[in-house]
Amino acid sequence: MSLSMKPATPCTLPTTTRPAKHVSVRYCTLTQTAVRPLKMSLDTHQPAVKSWEHLLDPLDYDPMASFFTSRAVKLGNKWKEYQGVKNWEGLVDPLDENLRGEILRYGSFVEAAYRSFNFDSSSSSYGACRYPKSTLLDRSGLHQTGYRLTRHLRATSGIQLPHWVDMAPNWVATKSSWIGYVAVCQDKEEIARLGRRDVVIALRGTATGLEWLENFRATLTPVPNADTKPTHHDDGDGDDSEPMVETGFLSLYTSGTDEVPSLQEMVREEISRLLQTYGDQPLSLTITGHSLGAALATLTAYDIKTTFKLAPMVTVMSFGGPRVGNRSFRCQLEKQGTKVLRIVNSDDLITKVPGFVLEEEDADVPKDQKVYVAGLPSWIQKRVEDTQWVYAEVGRELKLRSRSCPYLKNINVATCHDLKTYLHLVNYS
Predict the structure, then answer these.
(1) pTM assigned to the model
(2) For 267-303, what is each residue's pLDDT tens digit?
(3) What's the start-to-end Cα distance of the chain, in Å?
(4) 35, 180, 219, 416: most buried, per Cβ within 10 A?
(5) Active site residue: 347, 348, 402, 418, which one?
């Protein structure tokens, strides 16, 4: 039997009060993606959007230029090590050069997703992909990758909008938007270099108003498995809780409309087709994303492994991702063999939200003991544990620090979270 993911509980905005004819909305973003433009248009038929470039471009660095640094390295029969079969032991500290190249390569696929998204809220095609599958990689700056796009992906908010939303601007009312793509390695030389045929799912970060609202729905929602039994932790603390994930992330993954299938349905359909086509070959599924895309990448990996019992190795390479679920969810990921490499900038606030983390794997304490917040009374600690706000980190962490890099021009919230910053730090760490 396969596990199933039920949709998160819908959030309904109040409809009792009709807004005035002229509504002014202000919002503050902690990430690049809601306003992130390109320095220059990659499509000569579409001008670049005006932006806060002095805040969001920390350095003169093109992450696409680093894509080719790994192409000369033949991974061969060691490819599973770089996909995390041994949890990247001995490869993270210090960072192995081959792994560095792979991280940059997958990060470039995410950058291509950003560059292909239409951020112009005044456009009738706001929230759509700017390019067709046949030219997306080339037109977004990735040339001769050996990969071919096979599916566009969309994410839909499950928030129920009031009837007056039609009067709101596009960035508020857009319910479903393009969020990434699936690409399959087709080049024989690249397949030989990688040691297998690789399937990439690349997901961008938050861009629309409703995606931001979903981000703020930070309580945990159960993700029940088929037998509905909670996961038992073998750490001696007697905690038997069911797997739970952030409500808004689950909503964006499982919600759909009459016209647009959910992201979950799109992924399952495409992976099913690809497994039927290439299932008899050495195959890997690599899911990569930044910010919101990193969270959705983790959910996608979980769903693939629980839906397809004969799925090949599934690896997540996430950049600047927020926390996704509780300890039981982490245990489920580990049990199913999903490998997660979290690339984290310690100066990035987004990686520290949402919720509380009452344990710390890096702390010098035995794994069978909880780490309690200093000065927090035990009765408050117990109340926190009983709420749906206790998250757990997943996978292996590659920790970076932007403040230690002398090449960064600006150190602020946006800079620390920018994907370009992450790729620069990986390249020069």
Answers:
(1) 0.80
(2) 999 999 999 999 999 999 999 999 999 999 999 999 9
(3) 44
(4) 180
(5) 348
